Each structure stands twice: as structure tokens, then as C-alpha cells.
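Before a colleague's protein record goes any further, I have to sign it off. Thanks in advance; the entry in question is below:
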Amino acid sequence: MMPRLLPVLFALAGFPAFARQADWSPTKDTTRGKDLAAIGRTVDVYTHDSRPEWGYAAPQKDTFVVVHPKEDRRNAPLYVVLHSAGHDVMSCVKCTSEVGNHDIYRSPDDFYALYLDCRANKGDWWWGGMHVKDEGLIRKNSGGSPMPVERRVIDCVKWVIQACAIDEDRVYLSGNSMGGSGTLGIGMRHGNVFAAIKANVPAGIEHVSQRMYFPPQSVPKDVTFPDPPVAVDYSAPNDRWSAGHDRFVRAMNDRKYALYFYWGPFGHANNSAQILKINDLINSFDWLSVRRNEAYPVFTNATGNSPLPWPDRLKETAPGQVNAFFRWKNVSDAKDKLEMSLFLVSPDEVKTKIEVPKEASADVTLRRLQNLSVPPGESIQWSFGAAKGEVKADPQGVLTLPQLKISGKAETLTLRR
């Protein structure tokens, strides 16, 4: 099953192609960025005009920063960062020179990193921060249509992919606070761009709820999305911005979207070391190993998940997780057969205060299948250990295997036409 794309008109509005960017080229600003030397990497600062297709009411100037790998390389991965409401692009990059200062902003040394800005022009936020109480913002930015800033983000990412010869299958989106909300809202619907996304204490889940038509909305009949990126979220019930995470987790589960979710009473924190003292799992899943051109499993309705503290146990002090211990490894993905190894992480591999189950059951949905094309309604044979059966693809061509028993011993899930 190849990634499912939006209808043509919808796609043109949200995902401009490289060919359509020939009339738009950011300019390197050699006068800026000298004060970023402390980060110890080559830095390029770019400025650019707005494109009419983005839909801004008036033309504007914007800036983004590209940080090079410590050792230059072609076909490097790309780490994209959306800053919080308290930062702009330059202060965001400066944070990366100091451990403990918004740690999610720091990219691995062998990655390119792209830092975008939404402070230069009044009102041009990521539309993160649409808190449940911000009725005006929600009303202004509701619905599935991307705002101009969202189109700008995607165009800038695509330009950097091309300009820096990035590995297109290893592009990742991250953010803190407002940038975390923007990461969910922009990232989830762009599975054709981002392999995986990670949000540190996102400032609200209304942005992603609107763009993905989460309940009480419903997806219009003429709209489909690419298989979304694998999402990682860590939030705190004692953080007012985390309100509504029960709705978000439920929607992700019901839509069969991949989510690794961690929480604890660490407030609106951005220091990883301090957060790890409360929930030591936040960095346990290697989200930067997920590839856009490989199939992945979605685990839903799983046993072994912690009870959510939202909406009415916000003073809960125990840390918790959803899907934290599930792992997979792709074996083969052919036209008539797919093999994928499923297992639980070993307690020896992930040291945690939270109990690691020896066995857990979950519905397993397969997404981003590369070669095994399954039309809606077609039946496929499957086996997993001693279990086997037949599964029918849903109206979107998605396959879900009910309640597989997964343990620390890897078993191969096989689908065969």
C-alpha cells in the first residue's frame, strides 16, 4: 500500500512541490549568525520573502537557520525545530550550546538542523498554543486548512532538503511548548515529509485536533491523509497547557495512529535531565531511527499501558506511559509478502522505574507499506508465532491484526497475499 495522498486541489494548497519553488529562493545573510559560534558547528542564516501561495494577508520577511553536521556529509538526516513562544529563531539556536536549556532543540552532531522562526511578524505563530480556553484562537484557526505559517514551514523544509542534499526519508520535526503544539499540528498531517515527530510539553492539542479533524469533528469524505509520522509526546498533568490529552490519546488510538506517550508531574519543563528524574522513559524510544520509506506498526488498545491522569486526576504523582515498550524491526516488504519482527523492549535495555511487562496484547495496524499494495476490502493471510488468520483491509486499505500477544521474545508477523 503506497502512502495515501490528499486530493489534488487540497495537496496543491498544502504541499507545494519543488518544481513550483523555482521562483522562490532564500538568500544567505552573511552578516548574521556570528554570535552562534558557541554551538561549535557551521551555521548559515537565510532570509526570504513570502510566497503568494502561502496566503498571507500582506508580504513579510522571514528568517531560518541551517546548522551543519560537525563533519560535512551528503545524504544526512534533517532535524527540524519549532521554537516556543518565549523564543525566536536566533535565541532558539543559542539554547543548543547549553545542556539543560530546551534540550529538544539540540540535533545530533551528524544531522543537519533547520530552525524556523515565527516571531518576526505579528500574529504569525505556529498556531501552537491553541489552548482549550483560547476560544478566539481556536475559532480563528479551526478546520483542516493549513494556515500560511504551516505552508511556509513545509516549503522551507523542502527547500533545505534539496539545497543540502538531505536524505528525504530521514526528516524529523520537533518542538517545545508552542513549538510542540505546532509539531503535532503541522507534523501529523505531513507524513509524506516527516518520518517521525517529537513534542516536548506541547502547548495544547487543539491545533492537531483541528488539522486532523479529531472528534467531535469528522474527516470529510473527500479528504484522506498520508500515513502520518510516528509521534512521540511527553507532557505533564500539572501543566495547564496539557489539558485535553485524554482526547488526543483517544483520537490517536481510535484513528490507529502511532503514538509513544509519556507523562509525570514535571510541569512545563524543557530540561531533559530534570524530566528524566520523574519519567525516565522520555528518550527510550529511538524516534530518529524511523524511516519514511519503511513500514511501521501502530499499537492500539494495548494492555500494559498506565491509566491516564487526564482529565480528573491531574494531581497524580506517578509517571506513566502509553505504548512505551513496543518495538519492531522490518524484515521484508515485497509485493506479495511482508515480514516484520515485533517484540517488547528488554528491562536490561531500558532501565526504568516503571514496570516493564513480560507480555502485552495490542491491536497492530500496519502503515507505510511500501510494496504490499492492499486495495480496500481485500483479504490477506497472516501469521504471528502460533497464531494465524485472515484480515480484511478497511475502506482506506489499512490492515489491523486484533490483539496480538507480544513478549520480550521477538516473533515475526507475516502477511501473505
